[in-house]
Amino acid sequence: MSDESIKDLVKQKYGQAALRVTAIGSTSCCGASSNSSCDPVTSNLYAQDQTAELPETAVAASLGCGNPTALAELTAGETVLDLGSGGGIDVLLSAKRVGPSGKAYGLDMTDEMLALARENQRKAGVTNVEFLKGEIEAIPLSDSSVNVIISNCVINLSADKDRVFAEAFRVLKPGGRLAVSDVVVRGEVPAAIRRSVELWIGCVAGALEEGDYRAKLAKAGFEGVEVEPTRVYRTEDAREFLDREGIDAQAIAPSVDGKFMSAFVRARKPSTV
């Protein structure tokens, strides 16, 4: 599948998800419909006290696999950028933490998600937020303009992760931090099995092996790379989905269990570049 085909598929999937939330206000996983097989990926990521003051549609449109705002160390006055901001939940949470003297940007390429995010911003009455249309491979911000970059299981969807990391490095200020949730693979997984599991975890996940993830961040110039597992996926979690795909969950368990995970990835741009 070409890079453009992957991009078009991602736009279609997330555009449909935004329209579903707008129409019926339901939670949706990244697949064609919401069902229990998605729960181990998208459910129970945010504490109730975090979401209590947010519009229901912001929470319903959350399609991530982690909660970068809970793990990123945000302080008042900082500028934050969320790559692939979707319905805006992580942007709105970040805006609250950086306060009126700070700024939170959300970047998304899907018109429907941007419309939903801006409506959620209006409902929440948050003013220190701006949602930008664009692609994470070509961030529409100037060099050294943000303190922190967050993302919630979106980088794995990009067909050009080297470009994403290079752009993230460019827009971060010296000493700036990358703090993202993403799907990561530990060890080798047979290609056919990997494709099926990735469809369950994140549509067209394209998840990097942990060593590759570290290497690509280092190549972009980042230092202090840390990968912290936050949720490890098991074939039993995906049994319903795998059954529908005609895959024997028990048979592939030795090749899969413990190898796919949501992880919190930290890295830092050197203070002197």
What does this structure look like?
With 273 residues, the protein is an alpha/beta fold. The chain has helices at residues 3-24, 39-42, 48-51, 56-60, 68-71, 89-98, 111-124, 161-171, 191-202, 210-220, 239-244, 249-256, and strands at 79-83, 103-108, 129-133, 146-152, 172-185, 208-209, 223-232, 260-268. Strands 1, 2, 3, 4, 5, 6, 7 and 8 form an eight-stranded mixed beta sheet that branches. The longest helix has 22 residues, at 3-24. The chain is globular, with a radius of gyration of 18 Å. The chain starts with a helix and ends in a 5-residue tail after the last strand. 47% of the residues are buried. The model is unreliable at 27-40 (pLDDT under 50).
Topology of helices and strands:
Elements: H1 3-24, H2 39-42, H3 48-51, H4 56-60, H5 68-71, E1 79-83, H6 89-98, E2 103-108, H7 111-124, E3 129-133, E4 146-152, H8 161-171, E5 172-185, H9 191-202, E6 208-209, H10 210-220, E7 223-232, H11 239-244, H12 249-256, E8 260-268
Helix pairs in contact: 1-7, 8-10
What would the keywords be for this entry?
273 residues, alpha/beta, eight-stranded mixed beta sheet, 8 strands
Produce a short descriptive summary.
With 273 residues, the protein is of the alpha/beta class. It is built from twelve helices and eight strands. α1 packs across α7 (111-124).
The helix fraction, in percent, is 40-55%
Mean pLDDT: 80
Strand content: 15-25%
Low-confidence stretches: 27-40
Order of helices and strands: HHHHHEHEHEEHEHEHEHHE
Gyration radius over CA: 18 Å
The number of helical segments is: 12
* Biggest sheet layout: 8 strands, mixed
* Through-space gap between termini: 36 Å
Overall strand count = 8
Query: What class do helices, strands and sheet pairing give?
Result: alpha/beta
